[in-house]
Amino acid sequence: MTGHDTHKLSRNILAALPARYRVDGTKPFHIADHDPEDDGGLGLDKAQGKALLKLSRKRLSELQELLYANGTTSMLIVLQGMDTAGKDGTIKHVMSGVNPAGVSVSSFKQPGPQELLHGFLWRVHIVAPSAGRIGIFNRSQYEDVLVTRVHPEMLEREHLPGAINTDAFWQGRFEDIRHFEHYLARQGTVVLKFFLNISREEQRERLLARLDDKEKRWKFSTSDVKERQFWDKYQCAYEEAVGHTSRPYAPWFVVPSNHKWYARLVVMETIIDALEALKQKPPVMDPAFATSLDRYRDELMSEKPD
């Protein structure tokens, strides 16, 4: 495959990926309907996938620069997935070509004592992206309908009134998340949510790879093994969370992630598609200010070199 062919494939075929993996919030959502081995039928190997990623990264950099320059719209990217699904790697490879001044990454682990004194959305809202910036959530508000759904005993630390771990309680949390994301969208934030979908066997192989490689053992946590025992419960929790919160103003995308290169392409093309839809142009400079810059340039040009 030549460079020209790769570029043509990137723009003509990969541009259709966002719609392929977008969740239809009007229909029941079942993870079993989504194949984590899917590679789009592109017939590419890992090296060719990386070549496509490089080309798409350039386009993403251009669009992110426009977002930052205009300073009117922001973007929130939510990454969720089982342990080893590739959240960290996706952030590293997808965003490596953009201006770091316009991007922030927030990770949400178990809430601390101060965070537990507030509502579950408090710690999320305070780090939402400001105008012109891209904010990435490595885990997110969805931990509070995933981990706590699988381990409801954790709710006892949250100083909550009334009954907890009931159908009404969880429906209320889904409603709160929908309202929060709708609020962000009305304030000018483009919300994109990605579920990195891996198979149980793929997770097993990735955990073994961490254990077999001494340089990667630092990534391994005993909690990875513990949480793997709750695989089926997490799948049910994800089905509930995605099904109840995928809306036009904050869509979910189920990204097949057994092939890391393909997952990164899907995420990148979805971000590109959303940024292109904004149809942003370079900011128009005030004529008087532009004239002053021309004069300043002339002054610099007239100076004699030291």
TrEMBL record:
Residues annotated as domain Polyphosphate kinase-2-related: 44-280
Ribonucleoprotein keyword on record: no
Keyword Transferase set for record: yes
Keyword vocabulary terms for this entry: Kinase, Transferase
Gene3D superfamilies attached to this UniProt entry: P-loop containing nucleotide triphosphate hydrolases
GO-annotated molecular function: polyphosphate kinase activity
Taxonomic superkingdom: Bacteria
GO BP term (any one): polyphosphate metabolic process
InterPro entries: P-loop_NTPase, Polyphosphate_phosphotransfera, PPK2-rel_1, PPK2-related
UniProt record similarity statement: Belongs to the polyphosphate kinase 2 (PPK2) family. Class I subfamily.
Listed name of the protein: Polyphosphate kinase 2 family protein
Species of the source: Acetobacter estunensis
